[in-house]
Give the backbone structure.
Amino acid sequence: MRKAETARGGTGRVTRVELTAAPTELDLAGTTASTWSFGAVPAPTIRLSAGDTLHATIHNRLPTDTSVHWHGVALRDDMDGVPGLTQKPIASGEDFDYEFVAANPGTYWFHPHVGPQLDRGLYGALIVDDPHEPLSYDDEWVVILDDWLDGVTGTPDQVLKELSGGMGGMMSGGGGHMMMGARSELLGGDAGDVAYPYFLVNGRPAADPETFSSASGKRVRIRFINAGGDTAFRVGLGGHRLTVTHSDGFPVTPVDTDAILIGMGERYDAIVTLADGVFPLVAAAEGKGAAAFALVRTASGQAPRTTASIPELTRSVLTADKLTADPSVILRKRPVDRELTATLSGSMMAYDWAINGHRFDPSNPLAGALGVKQGERVRLRIVNTTQMWHPFHLHGHTYQHAGPGPRKDTSIVLPGRSLTVEFDADNPGRWAAHCHNIYHAEAGMMTVLGYQTA
């Protein structure tokens, strides 16, 4: 592990941050939500340059265990934040130091990996700047999208308990968090399981929107992050087209689009040249009949209504399959040494989500694990046999879609479809691989990619 990290090099510079996880209250346009956060929702953005070391001290002042996973970062596995697999959980009242080299520039984020804590307010952006940034832009806006219910209609633990009873429990009148009839052609059918009262941009609901102020003609890099638990977002900026430059931190051949579909855990960077006026940024909760909302202002004038729809969302919508990796990050061609399959199974009826027929058991995490050896080129086929879409996330690695498609760490796999990716086994350890719908993962749709030592 340390050998792999040493090979990544480093500048020797250290960025030190302290994060305190504690109960807090979030003002949602007059509704007070009791939740957990790192002081604010989202947490203050952490920034460092590629090759720098992050030293993050976590103070757990929650009433229960927690951890921090640094989503998308190829780090050493004892810093990956998955209790029972890479570390002991951070107990209530205890502190923990994460320290690792952030080798690759890009848009990343951090969140817990304990139960459904992801669906609270414990998250923030991690931006790794490129000291040789090839893009030209004047300003930057980090946009974190989220679906919210914690402290309003219930807690994520209550949602998980309700969903785990399956459709039978719903039909007998139990609970009220399950969403019925959320449909999306883009997602191949069922769009989501959970009913959320709010959808947020940077912790704020549509009734109290964030305003990004700039000037007409400025080129702005927007870093989109989907921190949701159960919602894909279709996002666009009224009156503008977006030039997508990165997916999951890695550059792609730039593509112009009106809107982007972003699954949970995915990140997209886009450049936009701002026009003169006040414009709505709308992130439609795909298939759920509601949206997150923010404003971009380059001039005085009346703000659009928060209920305003924008035509961009029904024009060209970019999905990852339309992207090609930038030549600088295409995996070099070499023979495939090992082929693996991750078959996603389960249904809403029984809520029995699994990978390769095995429901993840935290007390026996290596049962059903996928094995690789250091140095292998691995081809992974993710086969979705379910009637629902899943955003599949692999820890500790970036893979490449066939094609050569984009380099990513989180990818939407549509119902009844499969996705083939390749990666180099260059980061020894034990790595979680799971659906980034937090409720699917907690119900069992998770496995481990493990490095064989013999």
Q: What stands out?
A: The helical segments are 2-7, 156-164, 166-171, 438-443. The radius of gyration is 21 Å.
